[in-house]
Specification:
By secondary structure, this protein is mainly β. Helix content is about 0%, strand content about 35%. The strands form eleven sheets. It has a four-stranded antiparallel sheet with strand order 7-6-3-14, with no helix packed on it. A four-stranded antiparallel sheet has the order 19-18-15-26, with no helix packed on it. A two-stranded antiparallel ribbon has the order 1-2. A hairpin with a 5-residue loop joins strand 22 and strand 23. The protein is elongated. It starts with a strand and ends with a strand.
Length: about 325
């Protein structure tokens, strides 16, 4: 496999040619290891312990990425989500925006920024590879260039992040630190292990509409604003309707009670204790009882299955994943 004429500009065709040992015939094979990073929330730190952040912790689209002193700021928390093609997206926990290469550029030195999700290009797709020292390198799916700390300034806060030729230096080696027991406030798709989403039945935004599992479709019926409350519990609101995930009739201690959407009323029926499991899934426990959000009859792969309260049993019917909305 040869690059025609040794010309490495965009649009050059590949061809077959006699083996000549030139750079036009050297190729890097990059494995898309789908089990490398478990979907979830992480901070990314370099060797001196500085964290991947945004400039001045801003959350607007177009904000550049940098390294900064590690804090508890949610601008330093990133949601890794495996895509069907084996790449990952990195979604900023507080802004809901995605980490991407400006203009999907393949030019070394191009900066990285926040942006609204755009699945039409490779700009927000990242290949994750592992290093021998248990760190990770992130490569742009557009070019194979690595997420890099500009100028190798790994100890200098506020240094911008760019893509650059992979070179195995500390500027491109990141430690992924799972964020435990803390779902950052934001909008999510709440998904079963069967790859279905918590959904408002029939897209009916009326008070009292029951919730169910349904095929992931990206509609407003499957978008949930998860907000951490002052007592450590969470509310789960559907932004399109303004209603909350609620226990029908307020019967929070009755096993088998279905869940619904209902106007906010500041009662226990609408508060949830979210805890992380060892497999990086989450359990949603009703805040004022020992019952948890459960998929009826174990139907985690069956669209139309109701969601309900049930005694905690550690099964897959009670494990949830917070995905991109």
């Amino acid at each position: 496999m040869d690059i025609t004429g040794g010309n490495i500009i965009d649009g050059t065709q590949a061809q077959l040619w006699s083996n000549n040992g030139t750079s036009a015939q050297n190729w890097s094979l990059i494995s898309h290891n789908s089990s490398l990073v478990t979907n979830g929330f992480y901070t990314l730190t370099d060797s001196p312990g500085l964290a991947l952040d945004t400039v001045n912790s801003q959350t607007a689209s177009g904000t550049l990425a940098q390294i900064a002193n590690a804090t508890d700021s949610t601008t330093q928390t990133w949601q890794f989500a495996l895509q069907p093609d084996g790449t990952y997206t990195l979604r900023n926990a507080i802004s809901g925006l995605f980490l991407g290469v400006i203009n999907a550029s393949i030019t070394p030195g191009t900066n990285i920024q926040l942006g609204k999700q755009d699945t039409s290009t490779c700009a927000q797709k990242w290949i994750v590879t592992t290093n021998s020292n248990s760190t990770y390198t992130l490569l742009s799916a557009c070019s194979g260039l690595a997420v890099d700390i500009t100028g190798g300034a790994v100890s200098t806060p506020n240094t911008l992040i760019q893509v650059y030729a992979a070179n195995s230096t500390g500027s491109q080696q990141w430690t992924l630190n799972p964020v435990k027991n803390n779902i950052p406030t934001g909008t999510y798709s709440i998904q079963s292990l069967g790859n279905l989403a918590l959904d408002i039945t029939g897209g009916n935004m009326s008070n009292g509409t029951k919730t169910q599992l349904w095929t992931i479709n990206g509609t407003v019926s499957q978008q949930w604003q998860v907000t951490k409350l002052s007592d450590g519990n969470y509310s789960i609101q559907n932004p399109a309707s303004g209603n909350y995930l609620d226990v029908t009739g307020g019967t929070i201690s009755t096993q088998g009670t279905l869940t619904q959407i209902w106007p906010g009323n500041s009662t226990c029926s609408q508060e949830w204790n979210i805890t992380e499991n060892n497999d990086l899934t989450y359990t949603l426990q009703q805040a004022c009882s020992n019952l948890v959000l459960d998929i009826a009859w174990g139907g985690i792969t069956v669209p139309g299955t109701s969601s309900r309260l049930w005694a905690a049993n550690g099964s897959g019917s009670q494990k949830w994943v917070f995905g991109n909305p």
